[in-house]
Structure formats: structure tokens, C-alpha cells
Amino acid sequence: MHKDLYISVEGVSVGYDAQAVLKDVSFNLYSGELICLLGANGRGKSTLLKTLMGILPIVTGEIQLKGKSLASFSAEEKAKEMAVVLTDSLRDVSMKAKDVVVTGRYPYLSWNARLNPEDEIIVQKSLTKVNALDYANRWMSDLSDGERQRVVLARALAQQTDVLLLDEPTAFLDLAHTMELSVLLKKFTREEGKSIIMSSHDWATAVQIADRVFWIDESSQFHILETEALKNGDKMNEMLNSSYGKWDSDKGRFEISMGHE
Amino acid sequence: MNKTNFRVLLMTLFLVFIFIADILVGSVNIPLSDFFQYIKGNGWSHVSYEAIVFDYRIPKALTACFAGSALAVSGLLMQSFFRNPLAGPYVLGISSGASFGVALLLLLFSGTFLFSVPIAACLGSLLVLVSMIWASKRFRSSVSLLILGLMISYITGALVGVLQYFSKSEEIQSFVLWGLGSFAKTQWTDLQIMLPVLVLGLVFAYSRSKHLNSLLLGTSYAQSIGVSIKSIRRQLLYLVGVLVAWVTAYCGPIAFLGMAVPHLVRLWVDESDHKITIPLVALTGACVALLCDVIAQVPGFTIILPINSITSLFGAPFVIYYLLKKNRFA
């Protein structure tokens, strides 16, 4: 299958106020790829995603989006190529679910934000894809965490971008919803050729759905791993580096060491 | 006709009704029958009515309308920008900033010249707004921000107190009267300056609806859909600063209207889109300001109460009621 190069990252450092949290990141992201970004808290996963989206400035290095420097895109042009799901909870947002999804169309609308019939259809379709049509007219504060997360994903889909950057999209979800989301994301990459980078702490799921894994280690080094290589337990245990548990490659899950003192 | 349009129509009818009531009620009560006679072209039953209505009551009612709209829309803008239901020009100290500017002018320089009061009020309110926005980037918690607003109010209040202590009694009286708030101090010549600025400000606020909707999601999401946070923050800063200062300069600090009206609208309109809420908040703000003015005239008595007492007496309990009733905001 032919693959387009969507994002290329070359020797990039990311951080806040010119202070690099994560250094020397290089990778290529192709169409139809689902990538899981793993690493302990505070290693710069969110910072990397926000930098890719252009919410944070690049500290050093070069990011190209479809062959052009990211810096040459206006904020609205960027928003037509990449959409985000952030960890910011939208629980207290005084908006209805549908209005949240409508904001996904904003990069395409003029100052008065008038929706064309075409935009309306896209909003409906986005809500349908994530199964959120039933509560489109409810307030965000009245939804459950799982429902809210679907709405937030629908918002990103409404932006009709080739790239989706998702920051811990499964963080507030229960097991069933996590599996549902995994299936959905995989479908988007396979059927629509979208490419997705999602940060996560859920290694067991990552091993099952990711095409490749980006791993930020203890010393904030950035690694690219083939998912197959992870299924071998040694690599997983090296990454986990914890005496509280071990990866069981037969069962495909972590076994907690109960005997630990 | 959908529900929202019907409500706009209802509100507009109420605005017309309360506007007429505000013209007729006061220390001199003009009978409603006189008003209808005048509309038919039969003139007033009393010679003085013409002057009372055209030189005094209509300018006052127009001032109340536009001041109410401007304050209410400012409150909505701030609530959306800070994502906090307690934000408002009075609570965040912007009104007291304007008061401080005017106090400096009236008490320290003891004189006014053309536009000096509005300019002093603008500078005072912008000073507070700039510090609030500076602080909003550093304080994650909106509670800290509200406390800061309160503290700024105390500081400016204390400075005003010091100024008053060293001022002559006539100067103090003019400042205290200004501080009680009134829609009645504007004449047609003032309105020529006041109204265009407020109308332009309201139109500009409406034109920012899309960005304001984006900001409801928080700054990161807003940025991700193409909003320049720096530029919208600056635009809203100046817009709210000018609107509040302009109203405060002509009417004195009007408490609670800016904070309470957006909540009033949220109670009866199930919408969050600023394209709908900005016009409705403006309309409701005008109605509430006129209603407060009618109440301040204490129909049937010859006394007139300060407008600020009325807005606080009704505004504060209403905000408490809203917070108890709705837990949409945590």
C-alpha cells in the first residue's frame, strides 16, 4: 500500500520557555499509521504532542508537515491538517456536546461561524462515528466521562484532518470504553488512512493496536520500536524497569509480583 | 418561529414596555393616558412634561439601556474568557479601577475638562485589567484570581479613602454622589459621545463570537483550532476595559449587573453559542438596567434611591440563587 509522509521530525527538542524537557526527537509519520507514545509521567509526552500541534513553540530542530516547514503554516492551516484531543477535562465547559463538535469546523468558517449544510453533515457524521448522536443536545457537564471523551473525539474528527494527536485519550475510560476507542482509532487509520499518535500508559493495549511504539525512557531518550519487538518480554521488562511486576508475553499482560517486599 | 426567536421577541416587547415605564415614572409621574395622547399628536396635558420627557427622561432611559447592555456583555465576555461564572467587571475590580481613576481626577486634580472623566476611568480600569490578565497567566486557580480582584478593590478603595481624607468636602460630595451610580447625569450632548462608543464595542464583541466559543474549551483547544490567544486576549482586554470604563465614567460604578445578567440569560436560554447569547445578554442587560432604574424611582413616593443599591440588592441574591440552582460550573 502506498504511504504518504505526513510529518517528519528532525532533531527536535521540546519544552516550555526554551527549557528542553525532551531532546533529540526524530521520526517520520506516514498515512494509515497508529502510533502509541509511551513513557512515564513528566517525560514530555504532552509537550511533544503540543509542540507538534504548534500550541507550544519548537525549542530546536525542524518539524515538517506534508513536506513544508510547520512554521510556514498559519494556525488555521495547521488546524485543517492536525486535530488534537488533550487531557484538559471539558467537564466544566458550559457548552452542549454538539456545540463542542461544531468548534471542529471553525478553521473552515469565516468570522461569523455560520455552518453550511455540508458542515452540518460533517458534524452529524462525526457524532455518528463515535456513537454520540444520542446526547448531542446535552450539556457537557451532564455527560459521563466515557460519553464526554467520545464527544471530544468527534470534535477532532469534525476537523477532517489527516493527522490526529491524542493525549492519553483512554485516561478517564473504563475497560470497555478503552477497547471501544481502540477499535475506533484502528478503523480510522485503516479505512480513512488517517495517521494517529496517541500517548498512553496502557502498554497492554498499545502492544495490540500500535503499528509502532515511540518510547521515552527514564533518561528522557526518545526510541522508536517495532511493536513485534515488544511482544518479546525482555524488551518490555527493560522498559518497565520495575521490581513490582513483569511482562508475561504468553498472556500479553503485566503480572504484578505479589511477593515484593 | 423557534424558541430562541420567540424569546428575543418577548424580551424586545418587554424592553419597549419598561422603556416607556421608565420615561413616565419619577418624582413627577406622567399618566399613561398622557403618553397615548401625545403619541396620537394631541400634545401633553401639562406644559412641563415635554421638557421632563425629552430633556431628562429619554436621555436617562437611553443611558440605562446602553449601560446595561455594555456591562452585561462585558460580564459575559469575562466569564467566557476566564471560564468562571463569578467573573464580572465589578467583582474583578475593574469598576473599582475606574473609580480610582476618577477619584484621582476629581479629588487630586479637583477639576474636569472635556472627556477627562471617561479617560481617567479608562486608564484606571485598564490598569486593573492588565494586572488581572497578567495574573491569570500565573494563577491556575480561578479562585485565586477572584481573591486578587477583591484585593485590588480593597487597595484602590484604600487609596480613594486617603484621597478623600485630604480633600475638600465639596470634592468629596461630588465623588461620593458619582460613586452611588446614576443613569440620570447624561444629557443629549453626553449621549452623542457615549452611545457610539458603546454601540461599536457591542458590535465588536458580537464579531468575536467564534473566538469566544473556542475559548470556552480552554486556551489549548482554542489554539488548536486556529485562535491566536495573544491577539484575542488583547482584543478582549481593551474591549472590556473601554466598555466598563465608558459606562462607569458616565454612570458611576454599577454593581452586579455585569455578573448577574449572563446568568439570568442562561437560566431561560438553553444555548452557549455567543452568536445567540451576546445579543440576548445585551437585550436582557438593557431591560434589567431600566427595571432597576424604575425601581430606584420608588413609584408613588417622591424619593429616588441610588441605582447601585438597587442593582446590588437584586443582583447579589440572584447570583447566590443561580449558584445554588445550577451546578454546571464546579
Describe what this molecule looks like in 3D.
The complex is a heterodimer of chains A (261) and B (330). Chain A has nine helices and twelve strands. Chain A has helices spanning 45-53, 75-81, 97-102, 117-129, 145-158, 175-192, 203-209, 227-231, 233-240, and strands at residues 5-16, 19-30, 34-39, 60-65, 68-69, 82-85, 163-167, 195-199, 212-216, 222-226, 245-248, 253-256. In chain A, α4 (117-129) crosses α5. The model of chain A has no long low-confidence stretch (mean pLDDT 89). Chain B has one domain (3-65, 74-325): ABC transporter involved in vitamin B12 uptake, BtuC (Orthogonal Bundle), CATH 1.10.3470.10. Chain B contains 14 helices and no strands. In chain B, α4 runs parallel beside α6. The radius of gyration of chain B is 20 Å and the shape is globular. The model of chain B has no long low-confidence stretch (mean pLDDT 85). The chains are: A alpha/beta (261), B mainly alpha (330). The interface between A and B is medium-sized, with 35 and 28 residues.
Strand content of chain A: 25-35%
Q: How do the strands line up in the largest sheet of chain A?
A: 6-7-8-3-9-10
Number of β-strand runs of chain A: 12
Portion of residues within helices of chain B? over 70%
CATH architecture of chain A: 3-Layer(aba) Sandwich
Question: How many distinct helices of chain A?
Answer: 9
Top-tier CATH class of chain A: Alpha Beta
Low-confidence stretches of chain A: none
Biggest beta sheet attributes of chain A: 6 strands, mixed
Helix-strand topology string of chain B: HHHHHHHHHHHHHH
